């Protein structure tokens, strides 16, 4: 009995010690768990605050950058619009300008470029202000921009042909390049541009707009947003290639013809030299117009390998 009693007391003491150690371990574990949870919550809160500060800083930097870009771009645009408006007024105020084919064509070119600059600046203001338009409103603005943009290369072709006739056929220049023929050429230029716009509108009408949740565009208004169908994209590229290849061939051919005529003994050297410089200027203008037209394809290619912020900056540089 004594041995059993001692064995029982030993087991009881051992059980009591194990039970106490278990409670102590649970207490310590719960204490550390609560402390760790509080520390983790504090670290999470601090991390969230840092992220919020970074986001706020990025938003502020984006706003500051947009204001800076809008100011630097808007001020020269207003200056150029004023200069173009003065030149347009001057070309219509003098009788000699209104009765000379060269200046009539220059007026048409300057008018198209001024309208394109105005519409482009309006789209830039909407983009800088992150104003989202509806598809019909954006479509009208983009189509007007495309119309005025297509008029420039076609007018440059007519102006180059006029210089070619003036140098290579000086005796027939007055009978070929008349006010009536110049007006017909300008009407043809506008008709081709309008036909291109109407074709793009017909292609856009095939898009199922009724399936959209809203007609409001989810991004800023641009010509890229109007490429809703792959067919429209293919047509736009095909028309652009044909237009600028034809214009380049016409201007270069006129330049070669003027160079050949300038080497003849009967040619007016001074007139041929001026015509050559004019054609070179038209070729540079055509290159700038081509770059302003092809920037959409360039932006689409870069958007696959670059971030959105970099693409926005690149588009601003292209716009300038």
UniProtKB/TrEMBL annotation:
GO MF terms, alphabetically ordered: G protein-coupled receptor activity; odorant binding; olfactory receptor activity
Cellular localisation: Membrane
Assigned keywords, A-Z: Membrane, Transmembrane, Transmembrane helix
Segments traversing the membrane: 67-91, 103-127, 183-205, 238-258
UniProt keyword Membrane, yes or no: yes
Family matches, as SUPFAM superfamilies: Family A G protein-coupled receptor-like (SSF81321)
Chief place where the protein resides: membrane
A GO CC term attached to the entry: membrane
Domain G-protein coupled receptors family 1 profile intervals: 83-320
InterPro entries to which the protein is assigned, alphabetical: GPCR1_Superfamily_Member (IPR052921), GPCR_Rhodpsn (IPR000276), GPCR_Rhodpsn_7TM (IPR017452)
The keyword Transferase appears for this protein: no
Coiled coil: none
Domain of life: Eukaryota
This protein's name: Olfactory receptor 4K17-like
